Amino acid sequence: MNSNAKCDSNMSALAVLTCRPNSHPFQERHVSLHEPAKIGRSVARARPAPNNSIFDCKVLSRNHALIWYEEGRFFLQDTKSSNGTFVNSQRLSKGSEESPPREIMSGDVIQFGVDVMENSRRVTHSCIIASLQLFYPDGREAKPSGDGGTFSPTIGTNIYSQELYQLSQYLQEALHREQMLENKLATLQRLVQGTQEASEQGWQALVDEDRLLSRLEVLENQLQAYAKNQTKDNLKTELLALQDDKLNYENSAKESLRKVLQEKLDAVTKLSGIEHSLSNTEDECEHLRKICETSQNELEELATKHKESLNEVEEFKQQLSQAELSHKNDSEKIEKEKEELEMKIEEMQKEESSLLAKIESLQADNDFTKNQLTSIKARLESMKESEAEGSLDNDTIINTDMITKDSTVKLKELEEQIEYYKVQVRESNNRLNESSEKIEMSQNQLDQAQMDAVQHITKIASLEGDVAKLEAELLDTKRMLELQRSDAKSGAIFEVRQFDSDETINNDTDSSDSVNELSAISDNGGGEKGAAGKYIEEIQKLKGELLDAKRQVQLAKDEYNTMKAEHETLNMEYEIKVSQQQVDMKILQDKLQEAQQSAKQSNNEAEQLKSKLQTLQDDVNQLQHCSKLSQGSTIENSKGDLALLKEECANLRKRIQAIEGENKQLMNKYKALEELKAQLEGNESTWQVNLTDAQKDADKTKKQLSDATEQISSLKDRCSQYTEEINYVTSHLRETQEELNNLALRSKSIAAFSMVPLFILFFAIVMAFYPALSEITATSSM
């Protein structure tokens, strides 16, 4: 086939359609694809041929589909067909709608139309199902690539339509089987009626023949009796012999009547047992019918649940899109905040530049004060303007006091801010600890869900094994029932024929044997029914276990969904907390930078104050040196001024030492805050790792739950198959019971008709010996 395909494909691409076993029969087709090939029903202008894709099938449309080759790919399109086109059990379009082109590959299974049944003639028309082989123009086969083709976005709807299509096929098959069974029942009823009529006619002919023979025998005996001239001794001997025969016949008749009554009682008891078993089977059938109805309701519920799940998937998609939009909005907000922070940084830089300008102005003031001090030196030298110089020194000291007061106020504000930030950091640590505890709880719950899923999978595997065992046992019971049914039919036919060949008393024993055999067969049928009942009970138990497994899986799903929601909420809370902490850390960093800048400014101011103090001390030393040379009156004033200056210098030194201690404390606090920041960053990385692990575990549990749902659906399909087989077995049991009842009626009629010749013979004997008896008893009319 491949060589022919390669020879034909030298000019163009080639498609080979091979018939499958469940398809409408057709020859293998080799279709050249140098132009689009039409697929349709046979008409007068287009007849089926090995080199086209026209089929003699009634379920196809005239223009059903198109197949063509274009740009290195093969395509199939449904052209508004009534019964649809399927590729790997997936319909290309809805009813009477044109489908988009679907890419096909070698090895795909293509189905044109569906099986259709005519109600008038009770005939099913099969569809076209073919396995496809495609060859490129260079002779290579168009095998599917490793990626498995494109994934359709509407796979959920395709799967749902595929399930509906399979359900419709199952329903059609069930209707077809039901119609076949009805036809078989009708033919069996006709055969039974024909056999009953033939048996009645045969019995009537036998009865008429026996009557005529008995009448002839009676007449012959009367003739012989009248023809003989017998003596009294002969008559006495004959009477004694006749009396003995009479007694023997009476005894035999009593025994035969007793046997017949016993057989009748046995048949009645067996019939009551069979009726009881029939009522039990009817109850079982009603129970199975209820189970079938419940299973159908479950299927409908599953279909509704599937629709709901599809709606949930769409809702989740919408939520994802909304989340993406919110993420975009958040990213935009973050960018805006970043820009605002950059603007703030620029403003801080401007403030820093302004502070530098202030520092320069302060340096200028310092220079100015130096100039003033030089002028003070000049004034001290003159010693005439000492009072003015003292007033100027007081002004400078007041200015230094104001500067130190401002620095202490700033330091207090910085300490308050740092304490506030410490409180915020502690609160954030507590929140992070709570979130970590919640994450650990969610991880433990996920582990428990995984263990439950594994247990459900093991239970499902054990249930599959039990179902396989029950399937094998059901097959064995089917075979045994069919064998017993065939044996019962053959035994009944053989007994009827044997009864037709026999003549008189032996019929009683044959009928009793047939009744015993029928009772044994019925007992066997009852045993088989008991076994079938056991199997049904086991199947019901398995169904109950399956329902329990379903409930447990549903509970696991609900737990997983709740855990997933909690996990998502924890993630959101964690992200919010992390973002808040990041913002707080940024604020803390900014404030720490401000504190550092203020500390630097205070250090600079302290250094400036130190330099001023040194200059003042130099001035004081000079003044002391000058005062020694000056007069006594000026010495007293200068000593007072020097004492005041010394006190102010001591106070300034103390303030400088306090400022340095506060700066050291601020540096230590800054280092502690940096360590806290590093710890928070490490905790953030560990929590991110834990979150990724939890997400992986959640994905694993999702996969396990999906596998469990698939296994449960397969078990449901098997249970539906087993229920169909059980219905089939119960129908066979009903047929065998009906046949047993018919055979019991036949045995009763055979027993009744077998007694008729005995009564006729007894009557003939009585009539033959009636004259002699009348003479003996002296009741004859002389």
From TrEMBL:
PANTHER family linked to this entry: CENTROSOMAL PROTEIN OF 170 KDA, LD47843P
GO cellular component: centrosome; endoplasmic reticulum membrane; mitochondrial membrane; sarcolemma
Positions in coiled-coil regions: 171-252, 278-379, 411-487, 532-725
Protein name: Sarcolemmal membrane-associated protein
Complexes and interactors: Homodimer. Interacts with myosin. Interacts with SIKE1 and both associate with the STRIPAK core complex composed of PP2A catalytic and scaffolding subunits, the striatins (PP2A regulatory subunits), the striatin-associated proteins MOB4, STRIP1 and STRIP2, PDCD10 and members of the STE20 kinases, such as STK24 and STK26. Interacts (via FHA domain) with STK3 (when phosphorylated); the interaction associates STK3 with the STRIPAK complex.
SUPFAM superfamilies, per database record: SMAD/FHA domain, Tropomyosin
Membrane-traversing stretches: 750-773
Matching InterPro entries: Cent_Immune-Sig_Mod (IPR051176), FHA_dom (IPR000253), SMAD_FHA_dom_sf (IPR008984)
Residues in FHA domain copies: 37-92
Protein purpose: Associates with the striatin-interacting phosphatase and kinase (STRIPAK) core complex, forming the extended (SIKE1:SLMAP)STRIPAK complex. The (SIKE1:SLMAP)STRIPAK complex dephosphorylates STK3 leading to the inhibition of Hippo signaling and the control of cell growth. May play a role during myoblast fusion.
